[in-house]
Each structure stands twice: as C-alpha cells, then as structure tokens.
C-alpha cells in the first residue's frame, strides 16, 4: 500500500513538473512572438509590404494556436470537462488556424517566386489590396478541413451528444474509423498541394539563380534559402498533423508510452516550431532584424533608437 502511494506521489510530481515546464515555455514563446508582432506594427513599411504582412499572418496564427492549445492543456491537466457544443465551437476556430500557417507559407513561397522570376509584375501582384484578398483566400482554404470534419460529425452524432460533458479534444469528434480516414485524407491532400507549390517555386528560382549574376544572383540565392526554410516549416507542420495518429496507435499499446509521446510531440512539433520558425525567419531578414533590435532595446534597456520609414534603425543623440 505504501509502495502504491509512493508511486502515485512520484507520478503526480512528474506530471506537475512537466506541466510547469510547458507553462514556462509557452509564456516565453508567447512573449517572443509578441515582440515580433509589435515589431511588425511599429512601422508602416512592414504592414504595407506583402511578405511582411504574410509573415505577420503566420505570427498571429501561431500565437493564437499557442494560446488556445495551452488553455486546452490546462483543462486536461486539471481534468476540467466542458459541454461538447462549446468544444465544437473552439475547434471550429482552432482547425482553421492549424491550416492557416502552412497555407500562408505556400503563399509566401509564391510571393518570392513572383519577386525573383517575374520582377516586372511583382509590384502589381503584391499590392496591399491583392495581399488582403490573398489573406481572405488563405482563411477560406484553411476553413475547408474543419467544415468537412465537422460536417461528418453533424450527420453522425445525435443532439444528446452535444450536451454531454467531455474532455475537449479533436479525437472527441472522431466517432467512426472513416472519420479518422477522412481527416487524414483531407490534410494529406492539402499538404501535397502545398509541397508541390514549394518544390515548383524552388526549382524555378534555382534556374533563375544559375542564370543570374551580381546582385541578382545574390538575391536569387537568398530567395532559394527562404523557400527552403518554408519547406522545412511545412514539414514541421505536417509532422504535427501526424502526431495524433501516432498517439492513438501508442494508446492502444501502452498508456505510459502514449503520455510520453503526447508530451514530446507537443513540445517538439507543436510548441517549438510555432515560435522558433517565425523567430528564425525574422532574424534572417536584415530590415526586420534591425527593427526587432530596436524593440528589444526599448523593452530591456533605456537605450533610445528611431526607425526610419524603410525599416532601418538609427540611434538618437
């Protein structure tokens, strides 16, 4: 009996430590993303330039997902149940923003393709109005998986199901095996299309880079690295979507393995990429990096700087 109590105590302590670690990381990552968002809104140059606007879309989307995922994690940790209809509303929004980031990455890749391979049309296609239309299109495309997934739920579940109190998880809406398969097929098709876009853009930019010289060659090579980064970010997003299927398989084998896998998946493939990928992208961009340094110096010290309209930073005397 004493041994069982000791094991239960150790298990509770381990759960508490993991929970505290995750909460600390979430707060740190949300703070970093907040700095990046503040940097974006600091100057007109950023929110009138297409690639920075799309970058901000990924920042806002990732920050929202971090926040909502943390709320759901807190609910799970403290074993808080809510009515299913409330969970449906939460996940209708969450599933949109799960897809917004990868779709936006594809849009950012196409923007680089146009800038390097079709420079004469870049100004016309990358106008603020077209960028806003692109953002609406991104959200429209991102809504498709959620609409299809919940449509399959609405035709399968009775009205009494929505009044039940349950732990809020996307697996709650998968009542039948075919619904799991439908969700998998939707996301796999969507990511296949986005992967084709990124590979196509990379090949086209690579051809331009080989034929270019001087500054054009330097710009093309930088574009190649940017597209490669988008490809890596997309891969992380794809792994994140595979995680629930891996977790379900492990749950049938061993619950302890399931808990470990779920913790590591959340940490490595959900939490870290939502902060580190945007941060790396922001640090690679010289103009954005200079503006970020200004914001950081304002937050962490009394040093004064000013940002010019083109995003460059200068000290004040």
TrEMBL record:
Its main location: membrane. Keywords: Membrane, Transmembrane, Transmembrane helix. PROSITE patterns: G_PROTEIN_RECEP_F1_2 (PS50262). The keyword Iron-sulfur does not apply. GO terms for cellular component: membrane. The chain crosses the membrane at residues 20-41, 53-76, 82-110, 131-155, 185-206, 227-251, 263-283. It comes from the Eukaryota. Residues 32-281 form the G-protein coupled receptors family 1 profile domain. GO terms for molecular function: G protein-coupled receptor activity; odorant binding; olfactory receptor activity. It is found in: Membrane. PANTHER family: G_PROTEIN_RECEP_F1_2 DOMAIN-CONTAINING PROTEIN, GROWTH HORMONE SECRETAGOGUE RECEPTOR TYPE 1-LIKE-RELATED. This is Mu-type opioid receptor-like. It comes from Seriola lalandi dorsalis.
